[in-house]
Amino acid sequence: MIKMIAPILPFITEELYQTYYSQVLGEKSVHTLAYPNNDVFAIKQSLEPVYKNMDTVFQIIEKVRGYKTDSKL
């Protein structure tokens, strides 16, 4: 995420990178990092359980809102 924001906020992202990530990632600057590989299929598969849980959350919210409407709260 910090790499994607770097062209817009170069000084802030560089400071954040130097403070939190430079020792871990080993690059001298946020601007020399490679962009992450976006394997859309792998990302979608890894988020599948999250999507299933979100459906449950939305169903709960819908029921709570219905109860509030019926109870005139």
Notable traits:
73 residues; 2 domains; 3 helices; single chain; elongated; mainly alpha
Give the ordered list of helices and strands: HHH
Structural domain count: 2
Q: Quaternary status of these chains?
A: single chain
Radius of gyration: 21 Å
Distance between the termini: 41 Å
Shape descriptor = elongated
**Residues in helix, %:** over 70%
**Spans of at least 5 consecutive residues with low confidence:** none
Average the pLDDT over all residues and give the rounded result.
83
Number of strands: 0
Q: Quick one: biggest sheet?
A: none
Instruction: Please work out how many helical segments DSSP would assign.
Output: 3
How much β-strand is present in the residues? under 5%
Q: Structural class of the helix and strand makeup?
A: mainly alpha
Task: Give the helices and strands, then pairings.
Blueprint: H1 2-5, H2 10-25, H3 40-71
Describe this structure in words.
The structure is a single chain. The chain is mainly α. The protein folds into 2 domains: 1-35, no CATH class; 37-73. 71% of the residues lie in helices and 0% in strands. The protein has helices at residues 2-5, 10-25, 40-71. The longest helix is centred in the C-terminal third of the chain and has 32 residues, at 40-71. 4% of the residues are buried. The model has no long low-confidence stretch (mean pLDDT 83).
